Amino acid sequence: ITKYVIVTSSNLPLFAPILQLPARYWQELQEEERKDENKVKKDGEQSKEALQQEEDKTQKAKKRKQDQSPSDGEKKSDPFPGPAPIPEDRLQKFKRKDKLKKPHRKQHKLRDIIARSEDASEMAQKQAARFDLLLPEEAGFLEGDEDEDTCMISQEDIAEAVDITSGAKYFNLKLSQFGPYRLDYSKTGRHLLLGGRRGHVACIDWASKQLMCEINVMESVNDVKWLHTEAMYAVAQKKWLYIYDSNGIELHCIRKFNDVLRMQFLPYHFLLATICHALGSAGKISVDEHFLNQPHHIQSHINHIRWPLSIYFTLSYKNLVFVVVVVFVYMVTSGMDKKLKVYDVRTFKPLKSYFLPAGAACLSLSQKGLLSAATGDVVQVYKDVCSMPVTKPYMAHRLRGTVWGLHFCPFEDVLGIGHGDGFTSMLVPGAGEPNFDGLDANPYRSAKQRQEWEVKALMEKIQPDLISLDPTELAQVDQATWEQRHQDRVEVLGFDPLAKEKFVPKYKKKGRSSAGAIERRKKQVAHEEQRDVIRKSVEDKMKMEKERKERERKKAALSTQKSALDRFKK
Amino acid sequence: MKVKVIARNPDDYVRETKLDIQRVPRNYDPSLHPFEVSREYTRALNATKLERVFAKPFVASLDGHRDGVNCMAKHAKSLSTLLSGSCDGEVKVWNLSKHECVRTLQAHEGFVRGMVVRYCGTSFFTVGDDKTIKQWKMESPGYGEEEEPINTILGKTVYTGLDHHQNDPVFATCGQQVDIWDEQRSSPIRSFTWGVDSFSSVHFNPVETELLASCASDRSIVLYDMRESTPLKKVIMAMRSNTLSWNPMEAYYFTCANEDYNLYTYDMRYLAKPIMVHMDHVSAVLDVDYAPTGKEFVSASFDKTIRIFAKDGGHSREVYHTKRMQHVICIKWSADNKYILSGSDEMNIRLWKANAAEKLGVLAPREREAANYSQKLKEKFQHHPQIRRIARHRHLPKTIYHQTKELRVMKEARRRKERNVRKHSKPGSVPVVSEKEKHVVTVVK
């Protein structure tokens, strides 16, 4: 039987504070050297006592290693002994969990296993932190001059200042005929899907401006969303939910979902989450969420999805429009009450609240933590909303029509804006993650790579029952108390399996089962049980007596201790 | 103003020619890989299911013996050679890679009781029911030559077991007493007796090469040191042991296969209590052999199954059975840790994989990495209920399935009775005996 140990998970630090780097690279190393020396000294002192203990082995090995390097010091000695140091913030980025509490000394196997796995985990984290050095690209930035404010810099200036290809990423598509546009970027960031309110749906490769398909669905379009690849997308039309191919061919018409307002695709679960028109009573946020693959209703949907997503839901009675963006632990909401609030999702406590001149109708969060808010026809981008208090926007841009949709492009420094006059692609330096992972979302993947990735992703699809508020729940030890488990079992079985069954005496033949004999047998068993109960209570009483006596004895011992100050006591 | 926007050069990310491999830049940032625990769990679940799908352990059956296979011997130097002795005195030498018999010789009249290959690999010894010890050459006889042993020793009593020293030209036999022989002499250089008139097997310790152990018919296991003149000590158990096997990596551990359906791992220094009791068989255990890594061992039982146990596991991790395989008499774990050889009553020797779902042959580096990754994932998530349920699931023949249930009911009944006796007696008069101590009667020095 393995004994369970309580395990705590540490928070994922999303935005780590920037440390003060040492002025010269060797200053950090000197600290490291000093630390190493201290360790050696400690080993030297301990080694005499610790010779009998087993931990000595590892310390001795370390000491031997450190002794060896200065021992061949007649030749050259390494000026930077030991492995290369890793900066603390980088190590923090890869840190997963605090160390476990060590189990009882007698549980040899468990201690062994835990120690080994923790060592392996630490090594893996260090290796990942070291690999960080080899990443090819660096993030973008925008810094104004002494008196210049970054939010005053216009898009044209930025487009002129950067190279041609990056400058071409700022463009406008004038589509004034078919109503304000909603948009979506695919997961790799290469393909853009536009949906106009009057029915115009187009998907393009926005970098090369190649049109993949363009259709008019002859109905009003509420929302558009890419599915897992650039081969399929979902359009929430006025009546039902449609799924189209990237050539514009209608694949599915899902009549179960009518009146869909907003959608979000969960890439790792292969689920499409939709929000339909609220049908609940006034005053309540009643949101029914329909999963594409499993039509069952989940009431408090916010608790179940933890991936950057924007969810819009309406409160029917107040006609307030709330906009919600959730990413990992923080939830940012904005409403008609002209306030931008940041919440902690796990505790549902408001962290910060900002004032906006007008309520933000659209919100979007980028990979690097930039928040874009749109009010009317102005889009403002804020930097680092969740961790630091923010006073003024990082960037701003004014558009022709009212903004209807906002979306950051995944691995580019680009913000896509859908508005009444069409589509605008805006340059936001520092928004995108510069280094993508080739095995996950690779903008430069070939068809073969995409096929392989698709198959592997489908095989690793996470089942919807694993959706929970804490994503590391599976990694923790289930410490359900015995009582709770017993209760569950009773519920499931319908009866209590451990309850003592009433004693039914066996029916004996040849007249041995007369009433008196049966009563006698029953009494025998009842007396036995009573004896058990009495014995147990006597034992408990004896134990308590013993403990009381121990305590009194200890108190007496303490009080009889002679001290020099006794003569001053009365 | 200072501005920098992410600008990637496609030449750095797309391969130059069709003949190159694709470029795959990696970023291990955890924020780019959310839900890592759930995804790993799903991968572990898939890996466990695939392991059950690919679990096809049976490789080949070596046919040819005309009577049940009684004993087997591994060649000391060659992985693809196996020797087997049958109940009609025939000894066959097999080539395992071609699955065919290379040489047959009539060694004894009656059972071939024991066989062992000399450490140099050039000759092998056999003992049989005709009270002889014979030494044979490993090479086949040339054209026109007859099969003749190099050396024959005639004894007075039947010899039932044989084992050779790891490095020296010394071997030991057991029958009515345990004899140590020098290869050059025709009478034993030393004989050990301890009041028992029949020993069933004798084994040399592969690490501490001067130590021997033997199983006696008075339900005991006797330990000897070749350099001493009397046996060291013996442990008497509740039921007789058929045979034992020393752990090739740990000098002092040996596992004995007992008649009471269990196997016991003892530490040679503390024989009062076995280190582990391995329970899972439903009939007498006839043979046991350790893997060369010393981490696992395989046991053959009268109940027509083979079970693989971890060295410190109370229950088996794997069970092999076939409708055609009857009582398994002898078993060997091949020296490359990959195969298990079982010789059974119905004259067949079967070749099995030690890891049922393993892919044999040379694996490409990526295949190997993927296999290692899956293995590690399965280990990491092995305690989760769904994964444990799938990993543990084995099909058993109906007789064994019912017999296991019956034994469990019997054990539970015995335990209940003991509990009741303790409840109704004077406290302290019925001591609690742990499962391990229950099976040992006494240790005699």
UniProtKB/TrEMBL annotation, chain A:
<feature type="compositionally biased region" description="Basic residues">
    <location>
        <begin position="93"/>
        <end position="109"/>
    </location>
</feature>
<dbReference type="GO" id="GO:0032040">
    <property type="term" value="C:small-subunit processome"/>
</dbReference>
<dbReference type="InterPro" id="IPR036322">
    <property type="entry name" value="WD40_repeat_dom_sf"/>
</dbReference>
<feature type="region of interest" description="Disordered">
    <location>
        <begin position="31"/>
        <end position="112"/>
    </location>
</feature>
<keyword id="KW-0539">Nucleus</keyword>
<feature type="compositionally biased region" description="Basic and acidic residues">
    <location>
        <begin position="525"/>
        <end position="555"/>
    </location>
</feature>
<keyword id="KW-1133">Transmembrane helix</keyword>
<dbReference type="InterPro" id="IPR012952">
    <property type="entry name" value="BING4_C_dom"/>
</dbReference>
<feature type="domain" description="BING4 C-terminal">
    <location>
        <begin position="393"/>
        <end position="471"/>
    </location>
</feature>
<keyword id="KW-0812">Transmembrane</keyword>
<dbReference type="Pfam" id="PF08149">
    <property type="entry name" value="BING4CT"/>
</dbReference>
<dbReference type="GO" id="GO:0000462">
    <property type="term" value="P:maturation of SSU-rRNA from tricistronic rRNA transcript (SSU-rRNA, 5.8S rRNA, LSU-rRNA)"/>
</dbReference>
<feature type="transmembrane region" description="Helical">
    <location>
        <begin position="265"/>
        <end position="287"/>
    </location>
</feature>
<dbReference type="GO" id="GO:0030686">
    <property type="term" value="C:90S preribosome"/>
</dbReference>
<dbReference type="InterPro" id="IPR015943">
    <property type="entry name" value="WD40/YVTN_repeat-like_dom_sf"/>
</dbReference>
<protein>
    <submittedName>
        <fullName>WD repeat domain 46</fullName>
    </submittedName>
</protein>
<keyword id="KW-0677">Repeat</keyword>
<keyword id="KW-0472">Membrane</keyword>
<feature type="transmembrane region" description="Helical">
    <location>
        <begin position="307"/>
        <end position="332"/>
    </location>
</feature>
<dbReference type="InterPro" id="IPR040315">
    <property type="entry name" value="WDR46/Utp7"/>
</dbReference>
<feature type="compositionally biased region" description="Basic and acidic residues">
    <location>
        <begin position="32"/>
        <end position="48"/>
    </location>
</feature>
<keyword id="KW-0853">WD repeat</keyword>
UniProtKB/TrEMBL annotation, chain B:
<dbReference type="InterPro" id="IPR051733">
    <property type="entry name" value="WD_repeat_DCAF13/WDSOF1"/>
</dbReference>
<feature type="region of interest" description="Disordered">
    <location>
        <begin position="413"/>
        <end position="437"/>
    </location>
</feature>
<dbReference type="InterPro" id="IPR036322">
    <property type="entry name" value="WD40_repeat_dom_sf"/>
</dbReference>
<keyword id="KW-0698">rRNA processing</keyword>
<dbReference type="Pfam" id="PF00400">
    <property type="entry name" value="WD40"/>
</dbReference>
<feature type="repeat" description="WD">
    <location>
        <begin position="62"/>
        <end position="104"/>
    </location>
</feature>
<dbReference type="GO" id="GO:1990756">
    <property type="term" value="F:ubiquitin-like ligase-substrate adaptor activity"/>
</dbReference>
<protein>
    <recommendedName>
        <fullName>DDB1- and CUL4-associated factor 13</fullName>
    </recommendedName>
</protein>
<keyword id="KW-0539">Nucleus</keyword>
<dbReference type="InterPro" id="IPR019775">
    <property type="entry name" value="WD40_repeat_CS"/>
</dbReference>
<comment type="pathway">
    <text>Protein modification; protein ubiquitination.</text>
</comment>
<dbReference type="GO" id="GO:0080008">
    <property type="term" value="C:Cul4-RING E3 ubiquitin ligase complex"/>
</dbReference>
<dbReference type="GO" id="GO:0000462">
    <property type="term" value="P:maturation of SSU-rRNA from tricistronic rRNA transcript (SSU-rRNA, 5.8S rRNA, LSU-rRNA)"/>
</dbReference>
<dbReference type="GO" id="GO:0016567">
    <property type="term" value="P:protein ubiquitination"/>
</dbReference>
<keyword id="KW-0833">Ubl conjugation pathway</keyword>
<feature type="compositionally biased region" description="Basic residues">
    <location>
        <begin position="413"/>
        <end position="426"/>
    </location>
</feature>
<feature type="repeat" description="WD">
    <location>
        <begin position="321"/>
        <end position="362"/>
    </location>
</feature>
<dbReference type="InterPro" id="IPR001680">
    <property type="entry name" value="WD40_rpt"/>
</dbReference>
<dbReference type="InterPro" id="IPR015943">
    <property type="entry name" value="WD40/YVTN_repeat-like_dom_sf"/>
</dbReference>
<feature type="domain" description="Sof1-like protein">
    <location>
        <begin position="354"/>
        <end position="440"/>
    </location>
</feature>
<dbReference type="GO" id="GO:0007292">
    <property type="term" value="P:female gamete generation"/>
</dbReference>
<dbReference type="Pfam" id="PF04158">
    <property type="entry name" value="Sof1"/>
</dbReference>
